[in-house]
Design goal:
24% of the residues lie in helices and 25% in strands. It contains twelve helices and 29 strands. A hairpin with a 4-residue loop joins strand 20 and strand 21. Helix 7 packs across helix 8. The longest helix is centred in the N-terminal third of the chain and has 16 residues. It is elongated and about 100 Å long. Bound molecules: adenosine-5'-triphosphate and magnesium ion. The site of adenosine-5'-triphosphate has 15 residues, from helix 2 and strand 10.
Amino acid sequence: MDEVRLNEAPVEGTNFIDDFIIEDLKEGGRFEGAQVHTRFPPEPNGYLHIGHCKALCIDFGTAQRFGGICNLRMDDTNPAKEDNEFVAAIQEDIHWLGYDWGDRFFYGSDYFEQTYAYAEELIQKGLAYVCELTPEQFREYRGDTSTPARSPWRDRPIEENLDLFRRMRAGEFPEGKYTLRAKIDLASGNFNMRDPVLYRIRYIEHHRQGTKWCIFPMYDFAHPIQDAIEGITHSLCSLEYEDHRPLYDWVVNNLSVPSKPRQIEFSRLGINNTVLSKRKLRAMVEGGVVSGWDDPRMPTLCGLRRRGYTPAAIHSFIDQIGVSKVTSIVDSSFLEHCLRDDLNQKAQRVMAVLDPVKLIITNYPEGKTELFETENNPNDPSAGTRPITFSRELWIERSDYMEEPVKGYFRLFPGNEVRLKTTYVVRCTGAKKDEAGNVLEVYAEYDPDSRGGNPADGRKIKGTIHWVNAADSLDAEIRLYDNLFTVPDPESGNFMDYLNPDSLKILTGCKVESSLGKVEPGVPLQFMRQGYFCADNRDSAPGHLVFNRSVSLKDSFKPKQ
Ligand code: ATP
Ligand code: MG
């Protein structure tokens, strides 16, 4: 692969965008000697989701690899629903991923005055005209692949265009009466080039500009101008803008803008069993289908964070799915796989019982408590150890006892021995049941010569189960999550029809070890034999512990052969 040297550091292309940039930076290239400058332009009308995350990792990551810079620009060109709540959330999410825009934080709307001036420049050059087609006529005159579009207003004199455009700005006309259109090519095979609308009249309040404007630029006009004003070299965007690139180029080539950025497109990320569209995510929030944008089932970055996703897991996911022009739908199990991989290294191992039943060790002295020092993370010796308490009454999982064991069951049943994780071997002696046959308590006797979990005589113990000490265990609520949608492609129909009724399961009365009383939200935990969890950053409090299952232990992801 080609490489260029920047600040003495060699940069090797990791994808096709890098390769284009390397070409551009070379001697004689389009941006020879320039510093790579990208931007991430989210529309502040919702929270960022994992799809945006792909885009922003490409924008910030590419700049980083080339020793360049990346701007954060709120694309608030469109005066529709926009909100400062979203702006702060977008910034928080980007910082969480480890990226920073320095002092280069902008709003597209801050360029409205300049954008307007550029529109006048086009008019002066005879490259834009005020059109009077009604929306209906617009459709009618649009033409088709074999018929060019038409507009009777195309040859309006420059002075008249200028006058009308200024009066549009002054608010003299109702919405829909006039538009400003670029004069490009009504016969173009690319419909985006058939004299696209550049400005339209809208009497609507803008979240930053108030009522200063009643004409608003279209994205296709505003975006290249914003990029050019900021000195962006490479304007990276998703593939749906590919057909708009000729217009992007036309805008920067026909205006006296300070730079001529290059647009490069990559494919969007899709994930199955979820939707990646702010509009749909918003509908779920507003419809009360989820508890908010940060509901741990949501594919938003704040939802993933609350669920227990780490920046490292997300970066690993984005790196591995790669950058290309081929549309790809990624299996949600791959995202989980990346999280599991990271948490396996990081998570502190603790014990929690989700469906508790009492285990009484009948030959263990009443009132006695032993301390066992246990490793916090066998994959990370630097994580240290912590003491856990053991006594006569413990909580174990209901499913770890079976009166009549099925074949291959090595846990507790009358007469069988199991190891209680890190402490002792116990032999089950029976259970007490209520009239309906529900197990109320399980009984066992421990082997005092098995301290640490291995019998002194070396006999083999097949099963090991987790437990928590009843006397100092804490009650907890545990939330288990599944896909929000039951079908791989919920967007194939009305997505709300495919909601998974079992996407959230709340378990109450769970028992967790006492060390979890003070755990910070988001700290990765492995509940042994159960999965990876974290304390909920919204609902968990010292007297009311709430844990989210981030991901189960079992990996359902199967790499393609
Ligand atoms: P949505 O429909 O979710 O609102 P959008 O494209 O309208 O998506 P913007 O806020 O305008 O959202 O997007 C900011 C950037 O994120 C754009 O450059 C866009 O191309 C990119 N982006 C959005 N969704 C995806 C996706 N699924 N995969 C890759 N990039 C995406
Ligand atoms: Mg958008």
